[in-house]
Design brief:
This protein is an alpha/beta fold and 336 residues long.
């Protein structure tokens, strides 16, 4: 309240009267404001923490990106190294050559260290493989197809440059000089020089003559099994056919031998029947006998003679061979 006095207005009571409400108002407002500020500070702190997490995440991402960049750089370097290494495998020549020291001729292909597909349209694969002629194929370490249109397959398989159209198949198989159109098939199979148009079939087989097929070598023979019976004149004959033919031949020989035996006995009988002729006069008769041998056959003979008239002779003879063969003869003789 306001009080008046002689000295003037007493404001204290007023101040006190209005001071408490103001103080209360100020205190209440300040408390609310302080609470708001505290909440804001808390929110800002939370935000700072979140921003700190974001910063940490960004830092981690940057680190990851840095690591990724390092990995990509390493990968790029590795790829470059690989491509550089692959580039060193590229061979020479107009064809496709792949491998250190490899070479390929026109339309040819070579794979492997020092592989050489020198012939047009040829193919060489394997270390030191050589396809020298047109259309040749050489596959395997050291395989060498030297003649046109030839094929050498296997380690060390070789075909001489003077033997076109030939095949050597198997490690160490070979076709020698001047043996065109030949085939060596099997480990170490060999067609010798000059054996044109021949075949060596099987490991270690040797064909040494032209136009032959060999399935072995001297001292290392082989049988050919499951051979069908031959039909045409140039077909092979199997043992069954050979035995049948041998049986027929033996039967024929037996018949021939029997006939020869009979013939020899007949000769012997004839000789025996005429061994001791008798000289007769008119009206006389006589008989004679003999023994003879011919061709290993023995026979006995008997001969009857008669002369009924001075101009007529008659005779009958019988011969018996030691093998049981019997022969006979009869005749009449007339004198003019």
């Amino acid at each position: 309240m306001v009080s008046w006095s002689s000295s003037g207005i007493a404001w204290g009571s007023f101040s006190a009267g209005i001071g408490l409400p103001m103080a209360g108002f100020a205190s209440a407002g300040t408390g609310t404001f302080a609470t708001s500020v505290t909440g804001l500070a808390s929110s800002l702190s939370t935000t700072n923490l979140a921003l700190g997490g974001v910063s940490t995440s960004v830092t981690g991402l940057a680190s990851s990106l840095s690591t990724t960049n390092a990995g990509l750089s390493t990968l790029s370097s590795s790829v470059d190294t690989r491509f550089a290494a692959l580039a060193s495998f590229k061979g020479t020549g107009p064809g496709f050559a792949w491998g250190p020291g490899s070479n390929a001729g026109p339309h040819a292909t070579a794979f492997g260290t020092n592989a050489d597909a020198a012939g047009d349209d040829s193919f060489a694969a394997g270390e030191n493989a050589l396809a020298a002629g047109h259309g040749d194929m050489a596959i395997g370490f050291g395989a060498h197809a030297g003649a046109d249109n030839s094929t050498a397959v296997g380690t060390g398989a070789t075909i001489d440059a003077s033997s076109p159209n030939s095949v050597a198949l198997g490690a160490g198989a070979s076709v020698g000089a001047n043996a065109a159109n030949s085939t060596a098939l099997g480990f170490g199979a060999t067609v010798n020089a000059g054996a044109t148009n021949s075949v060596a079939l099987g490991a270690g087989s040797i064909a040494s003559q032209p136009n032959t097929v060999s399935v072995g070598s001297p001292g290392a023979d082989r049988r050919i099994t499951n051979v069908a019976a031959g039909v045409d004149p140039t077909d092979a004959v199997n043992v069954s056919q050979l035995n049948a033919a041998a049986n027929v031949a033996q039967a024929s020989v037996a018949v021939l031998n029997h006939r020869v035996s009979v013939a020899y006995s007949g000769v012997a009988m004839g000789m025996a029947m005429s061994a001791a002729p008798v000289t007769l006069g008119q009206g006389e008769q006589g008989i004679s006998g003999g023994v003879a041998t011919f061709g290993g056959r023995t026979a006995f003979g008997f001969h009857y003679q008669g002369q009924p008239t001075g101009k007529v002779n008659v005779g009958v003879a019988v011969g018996v061979g030691a093998d049981g063969t019997v022969g006979a003869s009869a005749g009449v003789g007339v004198k003019f």
